Amino acid sequence: MKVHIGSAIYRTVEARHHASLATLIQRPGVEYMPVMGDALVERSRCISATYFLTESDADVHLSIDSDITDFDTDAALGMCQQTFKHDIVGGIYVTRNTTRTFPTSMFEPGTSVEMSLDPTPFPVRYVATGFMATHRRVFEKLAEDMPLLHGKDGARAFYPFYIPFIVDDDEGNPILLSEDWAFCHRAKDAGFGTYINPAIRLGHVSQMVFRLEDMFYDPVMPQPCLLERPDNTAKWRIHRSTQNDPKNGSEESRQVRRAQGRKEAKAGAASA
Prior knowledge:
- InterPro entries: Nucleotide-diphossugar_trans.
- There is one protein chain.
- The chain is an alpha/beta fold.
- The chain is 29% helix and 21% strand.
- It has one domain: Alpha-Beta Complex (Spore Coat Polysaccharide Biosynthesis Protein SpsA, Chain A), CATH 3.90.550.
- Strands 3-1-5-12-7-15-10 form a 7-stranded mixed sheet, with helices on both faces. A 3-stranded antiparallel sheet has the order 9-17-18, with no helix packed on it. It has a two-stranded parallel sheet with strand order 2-4.
- The N and C termini lie far apart (45 Å).
C-alpha cells in the first residue's frame, strides 16, 4: 500500500501536529505533499486530490489538517488500509468551539456508535476531511463526470471534488454542505460508502481561554465511550467508560489486548 498525505495548509502548522506527522511520513510507502497558502480551503483540497490522481501512483489519499494532533502512525495506516474495502474512512474529532460541541461526523438520526478499541469501520452520513482516507477509485470515478477547472494553470488545475453546494435536509430545508460533506455526498451518489474508524483518537487544536472553573472538569485519557445521535438534531450523548488506552487504535494496543485475552483465557481454563 502506498499513501499520499495531502494536507491543506493556510498559514500555520501546529507543533503537536508536526510531532505526529514526523513519525508517519518516515514509514515506507508514505509520501507528503501539502497544498499551502490558499484561503479557499476547498480549492486546496481539490488541488491536492487532483495532484494525487494525476501525478501520484499512491493507492490512498490521506487528508490531515494542520491543526489535527496526537494521531498514532499504526492507527492512521490501518485506517488507510480499510479504504481498499470501505472506500472512505475517517476519524472523529470535536469541533474547535468547545469539547461540548458535536463531533465532525454526521450519524444518521437514531443511531449510536461504540467509540471503542475495535477499529471496524462504522457507516456514517458524512466524514470530516480533517482526518480522512480515500481510496483512489473514488476520485477516478468522480472525475469521469467532472470538468478539469483552470486547466491552463498547470499545477493549480483541479477537479471540483470538494466544492460546496446546497441540498435539502431531512425536513426539506435548504442547507449548504461544507467542502467535506459535499465530497461525501458526491461519493455516495456515485455508489461509494463513508465510514469512521471508532478506534481512532485525535486532538483538534484551538484557541481556548482557561478559567478557574475549568478545574471542575475531570480530564481523562482516550477511552471507550458510546456516542449517540438520538434524533434529527445536532444533539449528542456520550457515555464514559472507566477503561483507557493512551495508544487507542494502534496495532500495539491491539496486541496488548490480545495478549491480555489469552492470559485471561488461560487462567480461566486452569481454574476450571
